[in-house]
């Protein structure tokens, strides 16, 4: 069994909790390192095993990620899988000096967004994927490399995105050696049929690559889109605790799809998550006390899981 | 073309706005008749054509529905389809004295809930369906009759619900002459695969009966369940403006699936709704000013529809 299939077993659903990365991207006040440690400990106690925890950036660029190395060490001590962003060569070089389990890099689906957001072409971004893969595979810890394709379902600058372009970019990233390809609905434009269509197209082209999906709930479609992605065969889904993570392109919008609600979705669809919803609630307390200005979303935390029915998946794989 | 296929054309999606009925079920303070009229006028201007507007009950039982006759008259003047609950013989007799377009009656999926909620057996409730159909078809205005099967996806008292029982009840209601069978996730337990399964079972048994679905967003699955229902062939979906309508069985829970978000879902799935989201927003202002204590839900009202893409369905039928 490769490291890849240990981290992302093909017969199981994996929920990645990205609150400590994408959830903190826009916040004014961010949790202390100790609070992040407690957040991770409580989620890990609840059964969460996959986290995206920060970004390798100069500390003055985004102070909320200045402690990324410590957080990765904490993940290692908790024996959970850690992932972190590295958006340039320097970041990737820094990442491989740590025990991070997965390096996440980003390629925009559109040239317009690539230039505006990262000041480079998509071609340059894909070349960086290749260099990151080389660095990672040549390093002592051999972290996985995921490429998130941002704006894959519509772009805040270019508008409609041709799914064939996304398939082409995904194929080039896979050729460059990416272990995981992530399809990101960065600004929450997608509908479920579009999700199903794109996932199927990418799977048809790429075969057995590990595909993940990253959804924002900006227009309330997050859970529906996750359901469609599961129907199409996706087994790796990002979410953030309490739906943290506003979007700079959509003021007032919610952030990522709510992690807690994804658990209910998966279990009701027959995919065991291994996560205890009740225990997970205690992690929200950390977010609430550390970031009192952030709205915490989520239907399950509000209503609770039904006690009258057995809503858990009946098998452990699906 | 029958009245039924004029009201619910089989090749179109119909969204029923039930805010003035289910949305007011639990509120402390309710809109004045004039405000309800304005609510209907604004929604009608936005293209909404189907409303559930109250219940035929003694005025002292639920004062928020005391003006149901006036509201039905207003619907008639606006040339929109009105529906109202009638939960006993007296209510049905009252209903057929008005120009209401559709009488909605309810049968519980479980004997336990039927006894606890309506103090009658399911058999008695189905007998009432038959009498209501007789009254309706013998009346001057011949309103349609819909039977909502409450707790169809799980019961707050009995727990799990056998889908075969729901199919059996649906068949008996159709035999009793119901024009529309509604499947209601009254307490928000359902997941999308369960919705798809039950809709397909009922369709297989009942053939060409008009099926509708009534979803509560208590556990965040509302839009995902609506998407699954559409995939399974449902073309009539209930929602309430701003997701109004708390559930007595789930304190703190949200109410019905958000009407505004359903519009985005349908359009993104290729089903034209004929509803202008921007104009619909002005109806929320009525709800906000008349019921200042109610939380108004909805992602589309918060984030707005995307301006960068054409998110409308490309055809007018689907």
Number of helices of chain A: 12
Structural category of chain A is: alpha/beta
Topology order of chain A in helix (H) and strand (E) letters = HEHEHEHEHHEHEHEHEHHH
Oligomer: homodimer
For the termini of chain A, the CA-CA separation is 19 Å
- Helical content of chain A (DSSP H or I, runs of 4+): 40-55%
Q: What is the residue-mean pLDDT of chain A, rounded to a whole number? A: 94
Count of all domains of chain A: 1
**Strand percentage of chain A, roughly?**
5-15%
- Strands across the major sheet of chain A, in which order? 1-2-3-4-5-6-7-8
CATH architecture term of chain A: Alpha-Beta Barrel
Radius of gyration of chain A: 18 Å
CATH top level assignment of chain A: Alpha Beta
- The poorly predicted ranges of chain A are none
The CATH superfamily of chain A turns out to be Aldolase class I
CATH topology of chain A: TIM Barrel
Largest sheet of chain A: 8 strands, parallel, barrel
Q: Identify the biggest protein-protein contact and residues per side.
A: A-B, 49 and 49 residues
């Amino acid at each position: 069994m490769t490291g890849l299939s240990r981290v992302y077993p093909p017969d199981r659903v994996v929920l990645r909790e990205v609150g400590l990365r994408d959830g903190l991207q826009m916040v004014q006040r961010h949790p202390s390192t100790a609070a992040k440690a407690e957040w991770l400990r409580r989620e890990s106690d609840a059964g969460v095993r996959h986290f995206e925890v920060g970004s390798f950036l100069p500390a003055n660029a985004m102070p909320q990620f200045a402690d990324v190395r410590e957080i990765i060490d904490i993940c290692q001590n908790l024996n959970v899988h850690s992932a972190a962003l590295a958006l340039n060569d320097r970041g990737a070089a820094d990442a491989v000096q740590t025990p991070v389990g997965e390096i996440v890099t980003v390629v925009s689906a559109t040239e317009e967004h690539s230039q505006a957001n990262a000041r480079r072409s998509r071609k340059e971004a894909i070349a960086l994927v290749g260099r990151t893969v080389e660095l990672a595979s040549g390093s002592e810890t051999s972290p996985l490399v995921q490429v998130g394709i941002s704006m894959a379902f519509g772009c805040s600058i270019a508008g409609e995105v041709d799914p064939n372009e996304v398939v082409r970019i995904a194929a080039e990233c896979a050729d460059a050696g990416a272990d995981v390809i992530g399809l990101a609905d960065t600004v929450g434009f997608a509908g479920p049929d579009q999700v199903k269509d794109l996932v199927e197209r990418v799977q048809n082209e790429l075969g057995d690559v590990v595909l993940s999906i990253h959804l924002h709930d900006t227009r309330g479609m997050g859970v529906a889109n996750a359901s469609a992605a599961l129907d199409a065969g996706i087994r790796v889904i990002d979410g953030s605790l309490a739906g943290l993570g506003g979007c700079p392109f959509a003021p007032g919008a919610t952030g990522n799809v709510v992690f807690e609600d994804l658990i209910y979705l998966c279990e009701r669809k027959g995919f065991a998550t291994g996560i205890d919803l009740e225990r997970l609630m205690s992690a929200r307390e950390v977010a609430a006390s550390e970031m009192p200005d952030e709205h915490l979303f989520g239907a399950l935390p509000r209503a609770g899981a039904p006690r009258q029915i057995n809503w858990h998946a009946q098998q452990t794989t699906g």
